[in-house]
Amino acid sequence: MYILLTGLNHRTAPVEVRERLAFAQPVPREVYESLARNEELHGMVVLSTCNRTEVYATVKDIGEGAQVLERFLAERAKMTVEELRPYLYQPNCYDAIGHLFRVAAGLDSMVIGETQILGQVKDAYVRAVEVGASDGILNTLFQKALHAGKKVRTVTGLDRHAVSVSYAAVELAKNIFGTLAGKTVLVIGAGEMSELTARYLVDNGVSTVIVSNRSYDRAVCLAEKMQGKAVHFDELPQWLALADIVISCTAANHYVIKYEAVAPVLQEKVGKKTFMIDIAVPRDIDPRVGTIEGVHLYDIDDLEKVVDANLLQRKKAAREAERVLEQELKEFNDWLDTLYVIPVIKALKERGEAIKRAEVARALNRLGKVSPRQEKVINALASSIVNQLLHFPIINLKEASLTNQGHLYAEITKKLFELELEDEGNNAHGSEGKNRD
């Protein structure tokens, strides 16, 4: 059995192609039922996020399996296979395994080390198990990948360094408050950056979202998305009194939070901290507001300095993560190669034993009546010949199983001796395949 991956991501395909292959979450049972109608596929896991769609499968024939997955994705995208193929990658088995490990670790993400992908990989695997689509090999693969992803984050701290402006804002807020649980955020402006930062804050514990925008309707729209409250723009000073965190990103060409208007309100918050993030260009918040006691004001340049410093730290952590993954991959591949070789050795021994029995029976039939001692000698001779002939092939197969060539040795042995394995569904993989990365 071989492990096969067919997919595309933010590096290989533009968003207009990726969105054609986006699956609802959790992936509908009907999707797996459609895949399962292909006898070439044995186990299946579909991983679909905003930046990637990947189908992992176990197959007996790499070529046929690859074609099935290409056709499946092309039909889903309403494209021909020829149109979709330039955007796809189908790495060989070892690279497919390594790819999943890197995905789970956050090394293949648009933002290196982002934490959300680990949960998405877990959800994809759990869903495949729920619908009965995964198999023993994919179960072990995904469990090992999830373990590796967690280990990378624990050992290297890869996800501790903010590398986006929105994420940096959240990390700074955590530094100021310790925890964001129960905090209130006031969002000024209803654009994409404001929404993204607010979402990060909510994901990290902020409980109340207040939205204000010159267009009240847009404020209402964003507030509904965040399950928050919309307020009118001219009421900003009074809502500042309730806010622990303020995000401002409007298209105004002047300060929308002026020192004279808000100083009295903020000065009354004695003993309370207010974290203000001005990510607008031109700036929304009068810099003098940052001089008020208890106010921590950061503008876009401040946040970008944090991002630049953290990006260097995260790249260093990513190099350490690759070393961690190298060991985890070796352990999994050792298991996989051994899993593949054992049935081949068993089949080889059975073939040798079958030949020995047949030839001994033929010899005894030709010799006619022989004594028990003579029959014993003939059997021993035949066993010795078979054992000596198979000794080195078996030794070499066992040794090869501890390298990344074990599957090749096993496959060649199968072809040379025309072996048929009793249950290939429990076996492993090969290295054939196309790699369009």
UniProtKB/TrEMBL annotation:
Domain-level remarks: Possesses an unusual extended V-shaped dimeric structure with each monomer consisting of three distinct domains arranged along a curved 'spinal' alpha-helix. The N-terminal catalytic domain specifically recognizes the glutamate moiety of the substrate. The second domain is the NADPH-binding domain, and the third C-terminal domain is responsible for dimerization.
Domain Quinate/shikimate 5-dehydrogenase/glutamyl-tRNA reductase, chain residue ranges per copy: 171-306
Gene: hemA
Ligand binding (NADP(+)): 189-194
Name of the protein in its database record: Glutamyl-tRNA reductase
Organism of provenance: Syntrophothermus lipocalidus (strain DSM 12680 / TGB-C1)
CDD domains for this protein: NAD_bind_Glutamyl_tRNA_reduct (cd05213)
Family listed: Belongs to the glutamyl-tRNA reductase family.
Entry EC number(s): 1.2.1.70
Entry annotation: catalytic residues: 50
Keywords: NADP, Oxidoreductase, Porphyrin biosynthesis
Binding site for substrate: 49-52, 109, 114-116, 120
Quaternary organization: Homodimer.
Lineage: Bacteria, Bacillati, Bacillota, Clostridia, Eubacteriales
Family annotation (InterPro entries): 4pyrrol_synth_GluRdtase, 4pyrrol_synth_GluRdtase_dimer, 4pyrrol_synth_GluRdtase_N, GluRdtase_CS, GluRdtase_dimer_dom_sf, GluRdtase_N_sf, NAD(P)-bd_dom_sf, Shikm_DH/Glu-tRNA_Rdtase
Catalytic activities: (S)-4-amino-5-oxopentanoate + tRNA(Glu) + NADP(+) = L-glutamyl-tRNA(Glu) + NADPH + H(+)
Tree of life domain: Bacteria
